[in-house]
Amino acid sequence: MATQKARADSLSLLLFTLRSGKLMAINLLKVSEIIPCPPLTKLPEAHPHVKGVATLRGNSLSVIDLSRAIGEMPLADPDGGCLIVTEISRSRQGLHVQAVSRIVHCLSTDIKPPPYGSGNRSFITGVTRVDNTLVQVLDIEKVIHGIAPPPHEPHPGEVSEEDASLLAAANILVVDDSQVALQQSVHTLRNLGIDCHTARSAKDAINVLLELQGTDREINIIVSDIEMSEMDGFAFTRTLRETPDFQHLYILLHTSLDSAMSGDKAKAAGANAILTKFSSPELTNCLVTAARAVVFEER
């Protein structure tokens, strides 16, 4: 069907290597700077994958030993290499890598899902080819979650009895290619007593929408990641807005980046709202707003 044709957005990837020399990548929008590895202060009770703390312009920065975090051999020179400083999901950290290669520009359709059988232990969200060389796109959210999982929030947010009823009546689809990020959203919904549908890609999400269309479980609210392979959240949103059967859907885009950076683009694509990962109370508030909007539209 036409709705399953991928729409392409451009993106930039920062390529880097670890000891094995194979190319890995991270979305450039998640990178704030690249610096030589500075002296580190070791913390005796830190997670074993945290090499230490660096001081960067007067501020402390936790440095992750990326090689150990994803199960690869340690760097040949443990004090060499460089740091990729990232700012995602409301946190800032340095990734210790062997070397940064270069920046490449590609289309979201160039990023393919990980090979079948990669399994839940994989730390990649997609693969692509650069100059005929395979490049693995890092699932940085999973790396960070394995080291510093978010605090347990048994009460994702106070909701009134009326709003709880609205949420219970909503049919929600959560779309995210990061298993960790997907589980965080699902956990929030379950704490609200809500069951939801899930998909690991825009293509899978469209299949779910088509399968449930015309049933009593027909989806009316979508919570979608932006940084996905093959078809990102912006292209997914535009595709839905151009498809008569899905134009009415309430679309909340969920991003590991600062949502202020992508707000205009989200609005232009047709999203109803955008939210930075991950805050359970804020996600709850956004879902309440979505449920109210859906009910108002149905009336």
How would you sum up this structure, described in words?
This protein has helices at 66-69, 140-147, 161-169, 179-191, 202-212, 233-241, 259-269, 280-298; strands at residues 10-17, 23-27, 31-36, 50-56, 59-65, 82-88, 91-97, 99-107, 124-130, 133-138, 172-175, 197-199, 221-225, 250-255, 273-276. The protein has 299 residues and is of the alpha/beta class. It has two domains: 4-147, CheA-289, Domain 4 (OB fold (Dihydrolipoamide Acetyltransferase, E2P), Beta Barrel), CATH 2.40.50.180; 152-298, Response regulator (Rossmann fold, 3-Layer(aba) Sandwich). Helix 3 (161-169) crosses helix 8 and helix 4 crosses helix 8 (280-298). Keywords: Phosphoprotein. The modification 4-aspartylphosphate is found at residue 225.
CATH class value of the largest domain: Alpha Beta
Secondary-structure class: alpha/beta
User: Tally of extended strands?
Assistant: 15
**Element-by-element helix/strand order:** EEEEEHEEEEEHHEHEHEHEHEH
Helix content: 25-40%
CATH superfamily of the largest domain: Response regulator
Give the N-terminus to C-terminus distance in angstroms.
Answer: 30 Å
List the helices and strands and how they pair.
Blueprint (H helix, E strand, L loop, with lengths): L9 E8 L5 E5 L3 E6 L13 E7 L2 E7 H4 L12 E7 L2 E7 L1 E9 L16 E7 L2 E6 L1 H8 L13 H9 L2 E4 L3 H13 L5 E3 L2 H11 L8 E5 L7 H9 L8 E6 L3 H11 L3 E4 L3 H19 L1
Parallel strand pairs: 2-10, 5-7, 11-12, 11-13, 13-14, 14-15
Antiparallel strand pairs: 1-2, 1-8, 3-6, 4-5, 6-7, 9-10
Helix pairs in contact: 3-8, 4-8
Keywords: Phosphoprotein
Organism: Pseudomonas xantholysinigenes
GO biological process, one term: phosphorelay signal transduction system
